[in-house]
User: Fold this.
Amino acid sequence: MIKTYWNKGAKQKRITLLLVLVIIALLFFLRDDYQPALLFFRKFIFVITLCATVLFLGIRRFRKTASTGSRLGILGLLFLFFGVLYYVGASLGMYNYVKTYNVFNDLNRIEIVELPLTQNERIQPLRNIFSMANESVGETKDVSLPHLVRVDDSNQWTMAIQPTEKYYWQGIKDNTEEIFSVSSTTPFPRFSSENRIPVTFSIGESLRFSRNTYNAVVQRFNPWMLFNYEPSDTYYMKNDKGAWVQVVSLIKWKGFFFPYPTFGGVMIVENGEHNFTDYLERITIGKGTFIAPENMKDYPFLTKQNTLSEKVSRLQAESLKFLAGFSDPLPWNMKSAVKIPLAPKDQNQQPYVTDFDFSDTNVGAYSGLYHWFGLEPIGAERTSLSYSVFIPADGSNQFYFYDHASKKQGYAGVSAMPLKVKESKKEYDWNSNAPVEFRPYIKNIAGKKRMFFLGTVSTISSDNPEQFDGAATPDLALVDSEYRDVVWINAKKPSTWNEELYMQLNEAWRTSENENLYFEREKTILEKNRQILDSIQLLSKQQKKIEEIERLQKQIDSIKMN
Assistant:
């Protein structure tokens, strides 16, 4: 058809060439729009190839067959094949089952025999921070979802103050001009003055067309990356020069048979204003500097940082259900099958980004931010803690897990915590309040490394389940995962938490563990400095006595000589 039209004359050739150029231009400039289709083909390439092959062979056989009965039989077999394929692959979830198994085989699994300690505990849960941030901006602004990152050697919640998606025009013409950077270790998060950082980004998560972060990053992909990579979470942090940047986590799809997602590195987007040069760059080659996973070690601000997509870490943690073999999670086995427990009421789901200290575990892991998962048995009524999973938040190729079940520790899991907290404070109105986000709290107390869960009581709006009350001094509870006791602690005094735990639980520990346990309170900075000063003064006095003795000894020697 095209050849016939081409041969009609010069005018038709010009029109054909013009249409070809237009199509090529559209394919080039609109690649961010059709990239999801390419990615869909990549994710299901094996299934699509199998279905296309069976359909082609079936239709060819159908056309060559003259008998009506045989033709009906071929059509019946095709319907049966595609019906069984849909039922087994989609309805029974076997496609995701095999995909997760591929993730399991790709993991660099390391079983640890000792739990790491937690440090720099964050007091406010993510949803509280998100609500408080939204309370601090105007009608034409939105706040991006907070992420816990390292900023200047401290853990901060960072999020962009960006043009709202409610008003279309703002997303076209405005920049992202401010960032919230709030300490995660304070009970008094402030969303003003020094925590509101002026910085301009020409692209953002809520902006439109080529100024959208997803679109700008996809435009930066080369043809191979268009089929294999997709942008995920966007983080805001400082680079090695102290300038604020957007760091977009990338997901890379690997494998032909049942492709699976892995960490694909990051795309770093520098700050800067929207102008004509910036516009030309975005629509032609996109925005961002690609850093592959193996090269991230060359950028200190990306090491021990939080850059791993939670979509990837969730699938990695879930894949631990295959630890006893491919068939173990099937209904007739289930000996070690585990799941990631779901939190109710639209709360922040696992992973909980937590700061761990691995210095005394002897596994060579860094101390810093990790994605933590508390895996539980697959049954809805089972709430014990089977595994603790620690996935480096910077995308390092390690996967650490601690097997609570095989050690017969009998710890209660995350999903058991809300009811224990509610039972300990029956006077609360639990219809409008809820204990949320139980993250691990592991400390050396009374001669033993003990595991607790730190939860926060939040008020949740009945009209909007995603609206959480962000009180500056939230009610906090620590639950002993072994003894199931709840200790209510003072959010304003984290330095006293261990002592409060000991005061309430030491009798139970002594009775059960039959040991002479004690609590050694950690000295404050003033007490440590006073101790050092006293030591210096004592040494000074001793030195003076020695000098006096030496002086008297010289006098005695002089008298003896005379």
In short: The chain has 15 helices and 20 strands.
